[in-house]
Amino acid sequence: MSRGTAAITASPAMAAPLGARSENLAIARGLKMQDPDLLDHLIELYQHRLLRFLLFLTGQRELAEDLFQETWIRVLLRGSQYNGKARFDTWLFTIARNLVIDQARKRTMLSLEEMSKPGSSSEDDRPFEVAEDAPSPLEQFQMREDSAEVAEVLLRLETAPREVLVLRFYEDLSLEEIAGVTRTPLSTVKSRLYRGLAALKPELEALRATRGAVRAEAAA
Fold first, then answer.
1. pTM of whole model > 0.90?
2. Which one in 11, 123, 131, 203 has a CA-CA gap of 20 to 30 Å to 80?
């Protein structure tokens, strides 16, 4: 095992506040040296979160898997750009998000920013604060609802609020970190979070109504 990998695995908890800084710096040093053991360790550690993020963002498994591979290639090639000052996962998600945008542009689609630019009819800039010391609204929602249905409903939401919900409640990024990943003002991140949470329940009801109608038709 390389020194870079050992420095990371030595900590009992990757997210421990006191050790996070040194762990990020260890990752930065290992990436600069293109340490293959470190890269393997990072893939093992973050593969499920990264693929989940890409699946939610694209809604297509094959595309998400292609972008998953490309993300790790970029991490290897551009590892020297990571300086360890921010959480590694925020840098990783930023790379993945940029690849999704590049893919969208190749298909002559709108970018994620263009789909929800401030001033559009779908954007709501009302400030919205979320308590940090209690179960999140999405977590409370999932406690009451089927998690598979919630995941399906998320794919029905507009791209911008869906992205914020996934980063906030699945990946546990702070609102400030989400603003950094998405390169949007904090107020915009909050408004997208508000719109996403507000859209969840009616979308879930619509999904269940559709499925109920199909079952009723099949039973007739």
1. no
2. 11
